[in-house]
Every structure is written in C-alpha cells, then in structure tokens.
Design a protein that fits this description.
The chain has one domain: P-loop containing nucleotide triphosphate hydrolases (Rossmann fold, 3-Layer(aba) Sandwich), CATH 3.40.50. The radius of gyration is 18 Å and the shape is globular. Strand 1 and strand 2 form a beta hairpin. The chain has 249 residues and is of the alpha/beta class. It contains nine helices and twelve strands. It is 39% helix and 28% strand.
Length: 249
Amino acid sequence: MLEVNDLHVTVDGNEILKGLTLTINAGEVHAIMGPNGAGKSTLSAVIAGKDGYEVTQGSITFEGQDVLEMEIEERAQAGLLLGFQYPVEIPGVKNIYLLKSALNAQRAARGEGEMPAPEFMKLVKEKLQFMKMDASFLQRAVNEGFSGGEKKRNEILQMLVLQPKLAMLDEIDSGLDIDAMKVVADGVNSLRAEERAILLVTHYQRLLDYIVPDKVHVLVDGRIVKTGDAELAKALEANGYEGIEESAA
C-alpha cells in the first residue's frame, strides 16, 4: 500500500530524514518509535503533505501513485489521513459541518453523490457513541475549548467517519489519561481491516498494549535502524534507546 524509498527531508535547511525506507502492506499496523528529534513526526507530515518540509531525495508511493506529485486534498481524497499530535482549533466551523464536508468531498472524488442527511446523522451519532462523546460536540466549533483528551477523541471520530485507507496517528496518546487512552485505542482498533493500514507514531509502549502492532520500527537520526514485532517495543520500554543509538552511530 505504501512504499517510502530512500527519503531525505530537510526543514529550514536542516536534514531530518536521511534515507528512510519503509513498506506498509494493506491490513498491517506499524508503529514508529525513537528518541526526540529522530524524525518520527516528520515522516507522517511529509506523507500527508504538510507545509514546511522539503523532500530532497527519494520517493513515496501510495497504491501505485506518486504521493509527492499530489496536492494535499488529492492525498486526502485518495484515502490518506493524518491524526495530529496537536489538533488545531477552527473557530466558527462546527464539528458537524467539517465532518459532512470532508465526507462528501471524499464521495465526490469517488464519483458518488452526497450522503443523505438522515443517513449521515445516523452514521455520526453511532461513531460519537462509540467514542463516548456527547452529541453536543457536533454543534461546537472544531476543537475550540476542547480538553486535550477531547481533541484526540475528535481526531479518531473524524477517522471513523471518513474511513481512510491509510490512517497515520502522530502521538495520539500524548496527554491522555488511562480511560481516554482506552477509548482512543478502541476507536483505532475498530478501524483495523484487511483493506486498511495504520501507522502509529509514539514515544510510549503503553499505547501498544492496547493497539498491538504487526511491526515496530526504531527511528534514530533520520533512519530506521531496527525493525521487530510488538516485543521490540517492550524491550525499548525496559532498556531505552541508548544501546540502539550507539550501534546506529
């Protein structure tokens, strides 16, 4: 589904990714871990098309399409979705309008008509209930006045409504208490499917107790230096990155 090959990325003239290569197949959940400044968030931001990143070398292919040649909205319409570590507030735009506009834009890109209002409301209320969110959230401005946990639940709510092919979650666990973590994890796990892939960027093993990944990659100084299964995350929790950083150097 996703092929990242020899990716080099600079930010403000500083090289952050230094030859990163990664393959993700449909049906898989991959976790990216690593020390601060290793380039974890940069990877998902570049795939999604966030401004401020310059790709100087390498390629990104999603279902055979050259991602770097696609506009941000084309990436979203193709099924790429990034859940932010720090979701932005959008004053004046109600949650329900954002969800409806995004879903219908996706449907239009597939040549489908708009979802009828009763069907849309049924879908959204079902997903709200799943995320243990009150219906009043639909009438509030996007993320405005939301707590950290509410913002993260809202990111997962968007994913449940939009059903992306590749869901990328950038430190979705940061700032969550244990109850909110379980709700968010349940939301992510409900997305697991043969036709979908999930990429988790996280610092902590505890998220991976709830969302067990198929593969764990350790990113150090802009490159993936070690790959394993879920047990690798537990080893990192116990031993830290020091030994891996030394061997990578």
